[in-house]
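Batch 3, record 17
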Amino acid sequence: MYSTMLKTDGDIIVTQKGISDTFFSDINRSLGLKIEKIENVKKVNTLILGASPVNNLPIVGIYGVSKNRFENYRLIRGKYPDLHEVMVGEKINNILQAPKTVTISKKEFKVSGVYKSDIGFEDGGVVIGLEDASSIFHKSASLFLVTLDDINKQDISAQINALDDGIEAKTTDEFIDNYNQFKIIKISSDVISSLAFLMGILGIVSMMSMVVNDRKVEFGIMRSLGFSSRAIIIKLIAETLIVAILAYLCAIALSYLILDAIGHMEKFQGYINGDITPSLAISVFFISIIMATLGSLLPAIWASRVDPMSLILQGGAR
Amino acid sequence: MRLKAQHIEHFYAQEHILHDINLEIESSCITAIVGESGSGKTTLLAILSSLLRASSGSVHYDDISLEAIKNIDEFRKKNIGFVFQFHYLIDYLNIEENITLNALDATKSSVLLKALGIKHLASRYSDEVSGGERQRAAIARALINDPTFVFADEPTGNLDTKNAIGVFELFKEFKETGFVVATHDKKIIDYADTIIEMEDGFVKNIYTQ
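Prediction for the assembled complex:
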């Protein structure tokens, strides 16, 4: 994902001030030289980010990068690009069936090499030299990725900001937290997750209510045999938890399979590259447990209150 | 143990179901509560067995009032067994698991299964045995904790004559336990030690044979 790409490279991101999207950012490339001179700045990568049709593909991410960033891409064939050359991600290379040349914005470029990246966003893209990217997208640079020695990032950010009124330097984490696109995605996913959580609880309540209704006789018998209300509540919650844990294991296995399948689908050019991290899996596990407990609590209380008299009344006697 | 009911009155939706019931029942004998439908025999059985609280009056097990018992579930588990008209065996448990569902000592099940003639059915499920065998299993479940009293509501209501007689004969075999049986079945008269005759919510007669 784009955020992963930014996170894994550089401590500070410098863009045009006030832009809503890095694709619209336009800054002067020469500022990179000034930033490099600031004490404790280790490296400055310059990037031009754009998107354009490539051959018959309607839209592909184009990464114009300074030569010192080429090493970020693991070459699996050929060499890094010179002027009027590009290197293509493995996915794009497969989709275009190992092209010798590609056409970007009506200009033809020779394919100098093929790279592989673990970041799907990059693996489905085309990397080009800064000069060529500049001529395609008509801008000097989109952003700088600044790598520092182990030092206070805020202090260096302030020094970079002081270089030019038109730029904005933020630590990578700050940038990702405040980047509108990511904010929208995060808020949307939070809302969807909350709704899914509530729907999940309601679903469990509804399902367990049916289960309790179906097993009314069983709970009535248990009450008449001297089972306490607490024992019945614990029994029902335990049953729900076992189902929840099994469902969780199935869901995790299924998610891995689906994400893996999506990752290999050429249609998505590697842009959808979901990952289930251990911390995510653990969070989901605990959320499942909470959902199962909350969802089964009310039906379990109903079950514990089944009147054994109903067993007699079902016989029709009085 | 002696079960004593004093001045039991019970109302259901403004209908007066039981009128001033006073009686004493000894454990170690079979007591039949007989009467027509609507006479109040099942309501009385439910009140005596702690399943239903009377609108007024008291029920004592020896000197212990049901009202005063803090943990009625525990009391029920140790002292009371139930047999209903329908066997109400849990269908996902086999016969033995049904019998030991809330047993204080599960090892007793094999003795009980043998005594009731259903040992060979221990691992079967309720839908794999006959109606009479199911009711025997339900009786075994009621007896597993050696209760003082077993309350049975129309225990032969779903059985043919042969199986119904089999159930009453079984009650007779367990001499240590008191059976209180609410039933229409006139065959109980041959087996009961005491018969309580109910009519319109009143105890009409109590006679011992």
